[in-house]
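Write out this protein's structure.
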Amino acid sequence: MSKNIEAHPCILVTGAAGFIGFHLCQRLLARGDSVVGLDNLNDYYEVSLKENRLKQLEGQENFTFVKYDLSDRVAMEKLFAEHAFDAVVNLGAQAGVRYSLTNPHAYVDANLVGFMNVLEGCRHHKVGHLVYASSSSVYGANTTMPFSVHDNVDHPLSLYAASKKANELMAHTYAHLYKLPCTGLRFFTVYGPWGRPDMALFLFAKAILAGEPIDVFNHGRMKRDFTYIDDIVEGVIRVTDQPARPNPDWSGDNPDPGTSDAPYRVYNIGNNNPVELMHLIETLEKALGKEAIKNFMPIQPGDVPATWADVDALSEAVGFRPATSIEVGVESFVEWYKGYYA
């Protein structure tokens, strides 16, 4: 790192009012780091939830909030000039597979232009490590399970997935040209307290409690590697503390997509245990003490039927594997949900 990582680094977290960003900031602050949290507080989902997450952070020592848009080049240049960041964790992005079918330009602005501004800031201000959110959606049309970072991922099925794959390629370029250590994290269906209202668990809980039907896509035959938020944050922190290094065994004759001869790495962060959608619903029904009215539907455009993470590379690198069971995670989510929405 540009400074000793032991000596309470200054870390930029983009998307700080978002689900993962909020939890990450909490953990970084708890261990004594200085955190600058960036968010544009857009209205992709209820802004009040983002504002309430922020309220939990803003009273804390060593936390600074900036309301900037990643795609605002002048603002981003100013931000990097004003702070000496040891590491940057870029979680700010336009999320959602389905939204990308109707609002493609939002993905270009946030995920391509915005990411470019982050890369340039890191390059010109000698940031020690850039960690950024990729997504399990990059596996697209791949069907070999579990998904491995050593697999080719050239067949995305949504613009969202394509934008995340593009981030990995852009990061590799900067790692190669400017020796900027870059690590991409492919998140697998993250859930838990303070979660995103556009995600299945949130939508289901809301509908079940209101006595309304839930849409069960692919007739319930979807499988997702649901990963609890605390496991995600643990993985992100461990990876952030260990800047990417070149792989000495990497060869252009047989290129490994997950590593490089540049300081570049990609890891899956998933529970390594796919759960059928129907089992998730049953677990949620049990936690809520109420049965769901199910409306079975075909699979939606851009969706993949199953995700399953091979986390061996993450485990080898940082000695951690997500392991929170769906039962424990859903119980924790329901407890928060009932409290938050009274």
